[in-house]
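Schema walk-through. Below, the input block comes first and the output block second. Nothing else is stored per chain. Lengths vary across the set, and this one has 234 residues.
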Amino acid sequence: MEDILRFFTAPYQHTPWMYIVLEFVAAAFGIVSVFYAKKEDIKVFPTGIISTALYVYLLAHWQMYGDLIINIYYTLMSIYGWYMWLKVVDEEEHHISITRSNIGDYLKAAGIFVFTSVFVIGVYRHYKVMPRELGAGDSVRYVWQHLSTGKLSEIKKITPYLDTFTTGAAFAAMWLMANKKLESWSFWIAVNIVSVPLYVVKGYGFTAVQYFIFLVLAFYGYRDWRRALGEREH
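--- output ---
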């Protein structure tokens, strides 16, 4: 128990109380935002904007630039999503409804994922966060080599590659969410499954717990949206 407590508190021993309070507030609003998303409530966006705006400030201070990019995009897409969810779509003044993704939506989501991932890789290589000399095949072997050791010190070396995946998937998920696509929850589930151990490895225990809560809510969100969609289709 003492080791677990130390794991959660160690990263904050030399952190000013202001940043701890801001992280707690940002995490709380993030959880509330996902809860509203699950309920298909428009308040998902204002609460989400508060959370992501605070995280932009915090992540800039922590120099976690991959996560910083994600939260800037979240903020912008929350504004777009807020507009889309409020927009009247027909003469009877109906708002946008939950729908399934079509081929075009999947292609756009895939394009967002690929473009974002390539961009993040470029940034990480430019700043030497990733090895510059490794090609695609060598990068896969590099990741597997360090992951298969099971050693925390080795797994830490591949966190930029995991960041690349979570950033690309999160960008696609946010676009699908803004357009009320059911499959957005599948992307969020994938993002959260990777993010929980990723933040454990990085040493941010409280953030890992936050993403675990996100993961649970994402499963419920998918269930609730699928149920609501089924009721509308019948």
